[in-house]
Amino acid sequence: MMWGILQTEAYATVILRQVVDFLGVPDDVPAGVAKRMERQQVLYNGDHHFDVILGEQALYTNIGGPEVLREQMERLLQDIDLPSLSLGVHAATAEVSAWSRRRSRPVASRWHQGTQGRPVLPSVAVPG
């Protein structure tokens, strides 16, 4: 699944709708989506920097159908050049090492590297 700050409105709507339906909680999906979209402004405003590693499977998981997934991929491609974001993809075939003994935060064992050492998204064929 995509990290909330990188989700499109449609993707977030599908995810939050599934949570409401599964848990049987009051339907506050529109308010939840609006709040999620509001929080995303930290990517564009302020002095924040985010290092994000997505599992490769997040790029293939069918959330909401082909159009929602296409829009989500376009959003990632749009945001990948933001100065506030370093985006990596942990390859599905790479070994997962969730914790380093020397660090107290998660680390990944391998990123897809693009030109000039920048992480890039692998090619993803979206149906439709």
Describe the structure.
The chain has 128 residues and is of the alpha+beta class. 31% of the residues lie in helices and 9% in strands. The chain contains three helices and two strands, in the order ααβαβ. Strands 1-2 form a two-stranded parallel ribbon. Helix 1 crosses helix 2. The radius of gyration is 16 Å and the shape is globular.
Number of helices: 3
Uncertain segments: 100-117
Largest sheet: 2 strands, parallel
Task: Write out the strand line-up for the largest beta sheet, numbering strands in chain order.
Answer: 1-2
Helix-strand string: HHEHE
Which structural class is indicated by helix and strand composition?
A: alpha+beta
Q: What's the rounded overall pLDDT mean?
A: 82
Helix share, percent: 25-40%
What is the beta-strand fraction?
A: 5-15%
- Whole-number radius of gyration? 16 Å
Distance between the termini: 21 Å
Strand segment count = 2
What best-fitting shape do the alpha-carbon axes yield? Answer: globular
Give a brief outline of the structure.
This protein is an alpha+beta fold and 128 residues long. Helices cover 31% and strands 9% of the residues.
Write the layout of secondary structure elements.
Layout: H1 9-23, H2 29-39, E1 50-55, H3 66-79, E2 85-90
Helix pairs in contact: 1-2
Q: What are the defining features of this structure?
A:
128 residues; alpha+beta; 3 helices; globular
